[in-house]
Design brief:
single chain, alpha+beta, Immunoglobulin-like, 5-stranded antiparallel β-sheet, two-stranded parallel ribbon, 9 helices, 7 strands
Length: 260
């Protein structure tokens, strides 16, 4: 037999063997099964894997129910945080109370300190509130818009509407014809003076009701009144200024006339 043939045969048999370092096995390789719980570099067979696999949560020492585990589905916190919550839950904190913390991103007390109390709050910055309807008369908060809408230019006052009233001048008070302006006590005195009054020995006084009182004295006839009759003479009263009642004597006359 030639030497080359022998070498080729040896090489063919060597190629059928696996390398000791990182072999690439084919077919159905087998290996002895290590004991359960073995934790080494030994090859693990399928038998070893099944004998050491976790079939239930209890195998991992988990005592929580599936429903409880579903509650933390998607949880991204640490095991330490989970243990802390478990400890807190053991103190009697309920799931509802835990839900109160949902969305809290900073110290709760700090956030509460930034809130105003319901009773007598002291607001800062630029507080806002809903604007109430015009005419609302209640304990609701009034915004600046409400104030502006309810305190515009008031209407002129009338006998049935509250509003602005202008004071009459002396001339208007004495004329007695304006029905939209008010009289102060001083202007009421002025109303009886001016053209409405003459305090001479032969004089008159015009009253707001329309009556005119005239007086005078004379020792002769005819007698002339201080002002003419605007309508009619209602009454004349005379008296003697000395003994006797002859027409030639000095006498005093009061005349009442209707101005209107």
């Amino acid at each position: 037999m030639k030497l080359t043939s022998i070498v080729d045969a040896i090489i063919a048999k060597v190629n059928l063997k696996a390398n000791l370092a990182s072999p690439s096995l084919t077919g159905v390789p087998t290996s002895p099964t290590p004991i359960v719980g073995d934790n080494s570099t030994k090859v693990a067979t399928t038998e070893f894997v099944l004998a050491n696999s976790v079939n239930t949560l209890a195998d991992l020492g988990v005592t929580s129910t599936a429903a409880e585990l579903n509650k933390i589905d998607g949880y991204t916190g640490t095991a330490t945080e989970l243990n802390w919550m478990d400890t807190l839950h053991a103190t009697g904190v309920t799931a509802t109370e835990f839900d109160y913390l949902d969305g809290v991103t900073s110290n709760v007390q700090t956030q509460l300190n930034a809130k105003a109390p319901l009773a007598s709050p002291t607001l800062t910055g630029t507080p806002t509130a809903p604007t109430q309807e015009v005419g609302d008369n209640s304990t609701k908060i009034a915004t600046t818009a409400f104030v502006q809408a309810n305190t515009g230019t008031p209407p002129d006052a009338t006998t049935s509407v509250k509003g602005i009233v202008e004071l009459a001048t002396t001339v208007e008070a004495q004329a007695g014809t304006n029905d939209t302006k008010a009289l102060t006590p001083a202007k009421l005195v002025d109303a009886l003076q001016g053209a409405n009054q003459s305090l001479a020995s032969s004089g008159y006084q015009k009253l707001p009701g329309g009556l005119i009182i005239q007086w005078g004295s004379s020792t002769s006839t005819p007698i002339y009144f201080p002002i003419s009759f605007p309508n009619a003479c209602l009454q004349i009263v005379n008296s003697a200024t000395r003994s006797g009642y002859s027409l030639g004597d000095t006498w005093f006359v009061i005349v009442l006339m209707n101005l209107k």
